[in-house]
Write a structure and sequence with these properties.
By secondary structure, the chain is of the alpha/beta class. It is built from 13 helices and 21 strands. β4 and β5 form a beta hairpin. α1 runs antiparallel to α13.
């Protein structure tokens, strides 16, 4: 029996192990079940024939689960799988059809927080390695797993982990923690990820909320904050902060060609989110280009005054807005923070306080890398067709892997693009889990032969 046949015959075990992982809450934002889940992941690795150990920087920092299996036939090449075992909070609970940590199966779907992001993706990697071991007694090349527990809160310590365990984590290529599958069941092979800068801006005007009749005398901090935020970008989404785009390198001709050839069904996308039009009325190539290379300034939340049911005539004493900036290659988070501070000061908003939560630089693998061909060839064979994506619109800690380990990173996986990740009723499609597991088997083989 070859590895692909083993995947077919072992799907029951894959589903069962995924349900076991889902049933263990691991919400990093609330430090709920983190160590318990790390131990469970290590147990699943060992069950599949992969050595596993728990690495921890210090108490209070989520541990990394490190897995390794050395190849007898090809010990010169090493492929790493980077994943994470932590998940987003499941609230609001009342919007789930089934308990979020139940792992309920309905037909071709498994529901639960982490079903795709990222426990479903992790299980495809583990079961692909297991299929090789059970079928041939070996793996095509050395395999390493780095599975962290802070990805959903910004991977605050991943860089420190990579520096401390640089030798242990050394590798020649990294398969990233996820990959989207589009509406036509084609895997989107991501060659990069945008960076992120998450900040909180706040204004305090008075020591307590007041009766709104006093608005003729007391300044409203919500208005002040609105005025400040309005200076950050124009109505089409272009960021107005001085020198914000200075270091950005234009897309190459090959990048533009790949973007042009990327399938993107605007109507399906708009229907899924109930949209009438895109920001700036973008269409066609401009919409696709924005997803790949557009920097953003997004209001993630605005808090001030009374937001409950009915009316309450109150003048708030303070106001707060949470903003995330998506960054593109060459944008350095620390430098962008300085530019943000200078901008607010120059516009007369020195009273606006800035709190920086975290920042990540963008990363991108060259489309001409042999690693890209190895992954795409495997995906085309299993799925029939795949799509190269210059950069994912989202963010992950890819940059430190590229910079510290000097290894190219590529995203590919089983996440159906409308699988409701980070939302109630998140689900994984079993057919895509099976195909992705087979694809990972072929990627290992292609990588080893190169």
């Amino acid at each position: 029996m070859n590895p692909l046949q083993h995947v077919d015959s072992n799907m029951g075990d894959l589903i069962s192990d995924l349900q076991t992982l889902i049933k263990q809450p691991s919400v990093s934002a609330k430090n709920e079940g983190i160590e318990e889940c790390a131990n469970l992941v290590a147990k699943v690795l060992k069950k599949s024939g992969i050595s596993a150990e728990i690495l921890q920087l210090k108490k209070g920092v989520a541990p990394i689960v490190f897995g390794e299996i050395k190849s007898k036939q090809n010990p010169a090449k090493t492929l790493m799988f980077y994943n994470h075992y932590d998940v987003q909070p499941a609230e609001p609970f009342d919007l789930w059809d089934d308990p979020p940590f139940s792992g309920t199966r309905k037909g071709n779907k498994i529901f639960g927080r982490g079903a795709t992001d990222d426990k479903g993706e992790l299980i495809t990697r583990i079961k692909a390695v297991e299929a090789c071991l059970k079928s041939t007694g070996d793996v095509p090349c050395n395999i390493k797993f780095v599975i962290e527990g802070e990805e959903e809160t910004g991977s605050a310590h991943i860089e420190e982990y990579l520096k401390k365990y640089k030798k242990k984590f050394s590798c020649d290529g990294v398969i990233w923690e996820f990959g989207y599958v589009d509406a036509n069941n084609r895997p989107i092979i991501g060659l990069g990820m945008k960076g992120l800068l998450f900040v909180e801006l706040s204004v305090t005007e008075s020591i307590r909320d007041a009766h709104s009749s006093l608005a003729v005398l007391i300044k409203n901090p919500a208005w002040r904050l609105i005025e400040a935020v309005k200076t950050l970008r124009d109505s089409n989404g272009r960021i107005l902060i001085k020198n914000w785009y200075d270091e950005v390198t234009p897309l190459s001709k090959m990048d533009l060609k790949l973007i042009k050839n990327e399938p993107f069904d605007e109507n399906v996308f708009k229907k899924e989110f109930g949209l009438k039009s895109f920001l700036g009325n973008k269409k066609g190539f401009d919409a696709k280009k924005a997803l790949v290379s557009g920097a953003t300034c997004n209001i993630a939340g605005f808090i001030s005054g009374y937001v409950g049911d009915g009316a309450k005539t109150v003048l708030p004493g303070s106001a707060l807005v949470k903003i995330d900036f998506r960054l593109v290659p060459k944008m350095e988070p620390k430098k962008q923070v300085i530019r943000l501070k200078n901008h607010l000061k120059s516009k007369g908003f020195s009273d606006v306080k800035i709190k920086v939560f975290h920042g990540e630089s963008a990363a991108r693998t060259d489309s001409s890398s042999p690693f890209v061909y190895q992954v795409k060839t495997a995906a085309d064979k299993v799925f029939g067709e795949s799509v190269l994506n210059v950069s994912n619109a989202g963010t992950g800690p890819m940059h430190p892997f590229v910079e510290i380990l000097k290894a190219p990173c590529i995203s590919i996986g089983s996440t159906y693009m409308f699988s409701r990740i980070h939302s109630p009723n998140e689900f994984a499609r079993i057919d895509l889990l099976k195909k992705t597991t087979k694809c990972i088997c072929l990627i290992m083989q292609n990588f080893a032969k190169s």
